[in-house]
Amino acid sequence: MKHLVVLGAGTAGTMVVNRLRKRLANDEWRITVVDQDDVHNYQPGFLFIPFGSYEPADVVRPRHTVIHDGVDLVFGTIDRVTTKESTVRLTDGREFSYDYLVIATGTSPRPDQTPGMLGELWRHSIYDFYTYDGAVSLANRLSDWKGGRLVVHIVDMPIKCPVAPLEFAFLADAFFHRLGMRDRVEICYVTPLSGAFTKPACSQVLGSMLADRNIALETDFAVERINVDDKTLVSYDERQVPFDLLVTVPLNMGADFIGRSGIGDDLNYVRVDKHTLLSTDCDNIFAIGDAANIPTSKAGSVAHFATETFVKNFLAHVAGQPMTASFDGHTNCYIESGDGKAVLIDFNYDTQPLPGRYPVPKLGPFRLLEETRVNHWGKLAFRWMYWNLLLPGRPVPVSAHMSMAGKTEIPTQPQEVSHAHHNGR
């Protein structure tokens, strides 16, 4: 009997084991998935907790309830993978041999990598919202914050869900307007990028949206340290950004065991072929989701689309056949913009976000690169789809490959989206 071991039972790992359990014969394959605990978080929901839109209980379920019968679920911390012997060792001494290994351990914020971030200001004046604890702590802080200078900050790319910091800034603007205290809050968005986002047309649209909301934009900011005494971000070129409340996205890194095992890059992401997702170091290891070093967004949609490609390639590979499925880097993201509206973007390795309608040409119902209420409803509906369609491995009526149907080319002068005016709310 062959043994498939999957490391990580988050979004990508859960989809992988649930889809393959349906496709691999029980009497020929044993499937084991390893994670550190029995808590599965709906990570897109973390964004809404600080503003009271979601309660903490809305984003958590036990892992064992979302993994199909017939999969062995093991709890433990991974120490390392020994590729020559095809074994996985846990820190408690348990060891698993594998015929094939899938690494889906994601990416995690590492506040310890920025001098001054962890310390006396952490969870007092400096917060993150990419973790459950961070989002809940920030919700408590915002509930009685009297105002001041709010800085939303990204340490470096790549990060999981790269639009989430922008969403936080937009939602904060709307939140403080609702509380009648926006005039007492100065918001500044600080990014290492040269614009609001990585893709030029999208960056122009999102930068315009920041300006419309009176959110200052500080670009090309590579943070060197945080001065705790005067609450200031300091860049390598000695620029300084003061804050009263800092909401930061720390450096994101893959799991430490990947580095110890010699199969990752300098940020501990597994080196893979970006189309097949097979390790470039080992012929019996794949990486999926945020754990892979593919040059696309670390987002849930990427994990979903890539999983469809992976399943086809894995089944071909283990049967000794050529892998003919090719992942194109397809990504789509709903960007919450406040006041019940959102922007939708859809792109891949080679094509930047374009305007148009999605997923059905001329009908939509979603509009690309525009702020609409329907896009916002799509964002909210995704939580139901996540638990009931994506994780169980049920069909979703959206192609894993990006389609140009319904899209229009960007004109020479990019169109600005129509924005609701936020003054006088």
Give me the side-by-side strand order of the main sheet. Answer: 5-2-1-9-20
Q: Give the CATH superfamily of the largest domain.
A: FAD/NAD(P)-binding domain
CATH topology of the largest domain: FAD/NAD(P)-binding domain
How much β-strand is present in the residues?
A: 25-35%
What does this structure look like?
The chain is an alpha/beta fold. The chain has 2 domains: 2-108 and 253-318, FAD/NAD(P)-binding domain; 109-252, 3-Layer(bba) Sandwich (FAD/NAD(P)-binding domain), CATH 3.50.50.60. The protein contains 7 helices and 25 strands. The strands form 8 sheets. A 5-stranded parallel sheet has the order 5-2-1-9-20, with helices on one face. It has a 5-stranded parallel sheet with strand order 11-18-12-13-14. It has a 3-stranded antiparallel sheet with strand order 6-7-8. Helix 1 (11-23) packs parallel to helix 6 (300-318).
